[in-house]
Amino acid sequence: MSHHLRLLPAVFLFGSSLLVLNPTRAPGQVPPRVVAAVDNANRVTLTGNVHPLTRAGADQGAVADSLPMTRMLLLLKRSDEQEAALQDFLEKQQDKSSASYHQWVTPLEFGAQYGPADADIQAVTGWLGQQGFQVNKVYSGKTVIEFSGTAAQVRAAFGTEIHGYQVEGKLYSANASDPQIPAALAPVVAGIVSLNNFPRQSHVRVVGIARKIAGKPGLQPLLTFPNPFGSGTFYGMAPGDFATIYGSKSLIGAGNNGAGQTIAIVGETNINAADVQAFRQMFGLPANFTSANIILNGEDPGITSTGEEGEADLDVEWSGAVAPGATVDFVVSASTPASAGIDLSALYIVEHNLAGAMSESYGTCEADLGSGGNAFYNALWEQAAAQGITAMVSAGDGGSAGCDDFDTALAATQGLAVSGLASTPYNVAVGGTDFDEVNKWTTYWSATNATTGTDVIGTSALSYIPEIPWNESCAQIGLTDCGVSAPGGSLNIVAGSGGPSSCSTLAADGTCTSGYGKPKWQMGVTGMPNDSVRDLPDVSLFASPGFDGTGYVYCQSDSTISGAATCDIKNISSGSVDFGIVGGTSASSPAFAGVMALVNQYQAAHQGTSRQGNANYVLYQLAKKTGASCTSSVPVAAGCVFNDVTHGNSYIATTYGTSVGTNSVPCTGGSPNCSVTMTGGGSGVLVEPTSATTEAWTVTAGYDTVTGLGSVNVANLATKWGTVSTVATTTTLTLSPTTGITHGTNENVTVNITVTPKSGTATGDVSLIAKLADGTTRGLDQFTLGTNGSFSGTTQSLPGGTNYTVTAHYAGDGTNAPRD
């Protein structure tokens, strides 16, 4: 008989200090990093964690000491060596030549390999307990500790008071200064996710209700929709229309409808399951959603508002509309004075390894999210990718103005920004398009709806519809003052979001210091900005709530007109039925989650593995394949995977003389990145930081920061998914000289790069990447391989200094795999 003895660290309390004595570490265990006495008198500040709204709001003073601060999240961090190993593992999970290809881990396996040592976690939880907090849970991935307490305990433990703040007529609570922790814990504590209840913003656009009258074409708006073009008939997009437009009808018809796959939806309000059931019954979808698919993570928040309920209904209904055979689980967590419900729900999904695809339709710009919030989502989506979960996150509905409120603002005041929930390198950021259909509706829509047969009930779309950026603002007319010649109602900042990451790291004063570095899979793609940072979005789908005459149909029973509930199906055959009309990247993100469920099912049948992890590895490699990316037009060329959006609204171009394909929006003169630089000079539009005459941002051939790679043909995406990166490569690099380089002198350095595949010749681009002494990376230069798969030339981009490494990254060409 063998005896399995596990030695636990002994913990002793000496006054205000916590001393952890660690036993000898067993082979293979993670070494502990809390090695000094945990002394409350020796503290460090977690900078960049005061919400900007505390400065803009009216400070109401300290809240009551007894205010419950429940379900706070303390974010842990791994060692540099662990992070390097995890990065290597994530790469190998997507490398077909690796034994680790698609070898997804469980949350427990992730924590054991990449989490802090048990002794370190006990040091942190022991200190929290000493401060009077209740430790609710240490998550399996060893990335987050959940704990609860009071405002008084927060003040005593973290050295920051919780104050009340009056913002736009509402009272919120938030920390008034950056929190502090004992210096001894700093090696394993990344930060506190939040100490405030400022809400994350829902990326949904609810515009009203339309009525379907038996025997009449299209839908009749019951409210004035924001369509400046005077359309007589409004076309609501039903599930069958999506399948026709985006090419998934053949997949679904062949039984590849998402069966056997699970999609998880992030929520913070409950819903009425009958709404989803009515939607599915209305359009002849399988009756596979019940109240059992609503998962309560903690207390039931109830229906927090009809607006948030509409968001949740949309997400659940449309993820299942795109993949009608998939299981859709809706996870609900109540928000607390310290934590957003969506953060808790997203964490629950990853902790329970709930689904192969998940969608989050909320956002907060990187600056508002703070250092702790950005680090939380970066770590969470990183763990999700290691577990094989594809995380879809809506890019946003405020165009390139990611920090302004698109629901209320007529013009941006805070400059260019992106959502921190979507800007990590580990999730798919989903942007928004509109249909270029004004005065051409009858070309793309039938006057009648399908009622039976092979088409899904309600189908009236005839084909793919050319797409343009979703932008409801006057910025698409050009740089002119938006108040002069704009269509009625277009002085707003409503548009699909995108742009470069710029603020994932914040300084002590809350100002931005840097964004996420450029992921390797974004390199070497036609149109990709040479900006050294992560760019958004990755892909896009239709998101308009009706600007050009089409919006998503959804059901929400407590959204009524004259007392009549939407989606009341009792009289559909002989009378009329009312629908909610909705849009936003809150629609495109869950729709793309449905797309991924279809891809997962297809890959399970043809490749033997259903989960795909971070789908960007394949999406960007597919875009490099010859013929995979086609200009968005009709007829669609055979074999196209991506519908590349390259122009603006045709009707606006004809009417106003120009139309910019852009997600720029109006801005207040004198505000950051505004074309009008004078305060009080009227409205301008957001422009690029390096050009006062180029709108930020505009579409180009290939990738752009308006619609990403474009939208997709779902059937081609699924069938071609397994064809990328099949041939391993070898990449070599020589530089000369490697010493004595003087920064700022334009000194030439000779570069020789060769990429050798197993067969054939490698094509595409290679990039030089420097890893500097402080651990940061910087993109230096980009070259195109010659006909023999090599490059010889010079660069003047190497920085001065010593002790840094330079890597040549071959981006792949869709056939040959990337390699460093």
Keywords:
single chain; 820 residues; alpha+beta; Rossmann fold; Immunoglobulin-like; 3 domains; 8-stranded mixed sheet; 44 strands; 20% helix; disordered N terminus
Strand and helix layout:
Blueprint: E1 10-14, E2 17-21, E3 38-39, E4 43-45, H1 53-56, E5 58-62, E6 68-76, H2 80-93, H3 107-114, H4 118-130, E7 134-138, E8 144-150, H5 151-158, E9 162-167, E10 170-175, E11 180-182, E12 189-192, E13 201-202, E14 205-213, E15 220-221, E16 235-237, H6 239-245, H7 249-253, E17 262-267, H8 273-282, E18 294-296, H9 306-322, E19 327-332, H10 341-351, E20 357-360, E21 362-363, H11 366-386, E22 390-394, E23 428-435, H12 441-444, E24 467-469, E25 499-500, E26 505-506, E27 512-514, E28 535-536, E29 539-542, E30 550-554, E31 560-561, E32 564-565, E33 576-583, H13 585-606, H14 616-624, E34 629-631, E35 642-644, H15 650-656, E36 666-668, E37 683-685, E38 711-712, H16 714-720, E39 729-736, E40 749-757, E41 765-771, E42 777-784, E43 790-795, E44 805-810
Parallel strand pairs: 16-30, 17-19, 17-20, 18-19, 20-22, 22-23, 23-29, 34-35
Antiparallel strand pairs: 1-2, 2-3, 4-11, 5-9, 6-8, 6-12, 7-8, 9-10, 13-21, 14-15, 14-33, 23-24, 25-28, 26-27, 30-33, 31-32, 35-38, 36-37, 39-40, 40-43, 41-42, 41-44
Helix pairs in contact: 8-9, 9-13, 13-16
Report on this structure:
The chain is of the alpha+beta class. It has three domains: 10-77 and 116-198, no CATH class; 202-720, Rossmann fold, CATH 3.40.50; 726-810, Immunoglobulin-like, CATH 2.60.40. The chain is 20% helix and 25% strand. The chain contains 16 helices and 44 strands. Strand 31 and strand 32 form a beta hairpin. Helix 8 packs across helix 9. The model is unreliable at 1-27 and 220-228 (pLDDT under 50).
